[in-house]
Design goal:
Helix content is 40%, strand content 15%. The chain is an alpha/beta fold and 413 residues long. The chain has a domain of 206 residues: 3-Layer(aba) Sandwich (Rossmann fold), CATH 3.40.50. Strands 4-5-13-10-11-12 form a 6-stranded mixed sheet, sandwiched between helices. Strands 8-7-6-9 form a 4-stranded parallel sheet, sandwiched between helices. A 3-stranded antiparallel sheet has the order 2-1-3. β10, α10 and β11 form a beta-alpha-beta unit. α5 packs parallel to α6. The chain is globular. The N and C termini lie far apart (64 Å).
Length: 413
Amino acid sequence: MKKIKTLQCLNCGKDHSLDGAKYICSSCGGNLQVLYDYNLIKKRFSYDELKENRHMDIWRYADLLPVSDLKGVPNLQIGYTPLYRGESLSEKLGTGETYIKDDGRNPSASFKDRASAVVVARALETDQKIICAASTGNAASSLACLTAGMDLKTIIFVPEKAPPAKIAQLLVYGARVITVKGTYDDAFDLCVKASEEFGWYNRNTGYNPFTREGKKTCAFEICEQLEWETPDRIFVPAGDGNILSGVWKGFLEFKKIGFIEKLPKITAVQAEKSDAIKRAFESKGEIKPVSGETVADSISVSIPRDGMAAVMAIRDSGGSAISVTDKEIIEAIPELARATSVFAEPAAAAVYAGFKKAVKEKMLDKGESSLLLITGNGLKDVQSAMKSVGKPFLIKPGMDELKKLIAETGLDK
């Protein structure tokens, strides 16, 4: 494709051709990023084209995606998810304008559909027959959802502690599921070895460079939906760091082609025991393993596979990183839902918990606007949601029982 100039290593800077590199750098094993001929794209991609475009999904940005045509893309509405004004949050916390980007509204109820869509499109263009992936659940269920009905088989590796709802999605969509007795990192490593041994196409986050290309489309939508303005700060959940690096790349590319003038600061939100990116950012050092233990399975990672790119994005944006406890994450689920009507899974609710903590610790400038990126729907992990709210009342079907309950609990107050 003429629009792609190179696949450049983020670690050593080596350039690779589109056909010359499948996943990572051939010299140092570092992650690759897709770089485009932005001058060429400027000539054929404009505001006016977007206004006329009726593809209300990520494919409206096809000029900035690594696809040749749209014939083989998944036939689902992926992206262009709702963006809400969180006026009640602004009033409650005393902040500048607050926005909610609800990516739980994607087909598989996860942000990960953006990445899977681009990977599937690439797989079809290169005549792949089997795609494999390691995931705590969302990336896998996304891939299974998007390939259902296609001439593509999916083989999924998940850690044994993956939430049952996500496993159910995988099986319903027809994926071959292999549960690994270990962590996400164990599943990731096994998946890489399997793809090398059997020649399967690997979708793994922080390994396949095209996942970042799908995730950057969220930034494009934010710019459009806010009429070519950007919030001062974006709060992003971070596990592997690929969503964060992808969102930042999207803003950078829209600035390069002249669609926006201002870049937002990126704040990474991590679980307290899965905070390798935060530690690396604050120490200005290398990514080091952490336990990865957290109720927020989607950001449960010991070694972030796109950690370097995430740290670079935080620094380059003038952003920050913050961690939250599992208790704060669980408490954030109903609090966010009752303030915004958005039901978030733990990893997404962590963003709200991080936002609250950032306000409390005075990390935001006065009047600064913020956007909270909600990456997954709460139905993905009902067990965690129930921990946050307890059980419903149970009575016999009679008015006497109901009156007694009301008198004892004051539930009508």
